[in-house]
Amino acid sequence: MDITSSTDIQSPTIDLIKHGLNHAQTVNSDQVLYNRIKEAGDEKTQLKKAAEEFEAVFITKMLQEMDKLVDKEENGLFGNDNKYEEAFKSIVFQQMGHDMASNPRTSLGFATQIYRQMEHLVQ
Predict the structure, then answer these.
(1) If 0-12 CB within 10 Å is exposed, 13-18 middle and 19+ buried, where does residue 50 land?
(2) Helices (DSSP H) in 39-82: which residue ranges?
(3) Who contacts 9 (Cβ-Cβ below 8 Å, separation ≥6)?
(4) Between 96 and 38, where is the model more confident?
(5) Other CB atoms closer than 10 Å to residue 60's CB: what's the count?
(6) I need a labelling partner for 2 at 20 to 30 A (CA). Which of 32, 33, 78, 104 fits?
(7) Predicted confidence (pLDDT) per residue in 8-39, tens digit
């Protein structure tokens, strides 16, 4: 029995493990986001941070959707196997979203509007 055939047999198991890891990463990233907001300080600072994180998530999703509209060549940055490229782009889009939302010069203004509309609800 060669390695290829044993990998094929375990494919459903590997797929379940990958699914579990992807879910774990989502839960962990949500927990990290929650912790970032809770550790920001008083309620007004937490509201500002939550609004900024919301804008960052929005920008990240917007970049991901915009990327789907781009014509792709047959060979990407990492050759025919684009799983590495997709993982890399995901990280880049997240960082770009966060950077854009946290910079007053590049922000779309959602965070500011959310904060202004909800500011009276916190002390």
Answers:
(1) buried
(2) 43-68
(3) none
(4) 96
(5) 20
(6) 78
(7) 444 555 555 555 555 555 566 777 777 788 78
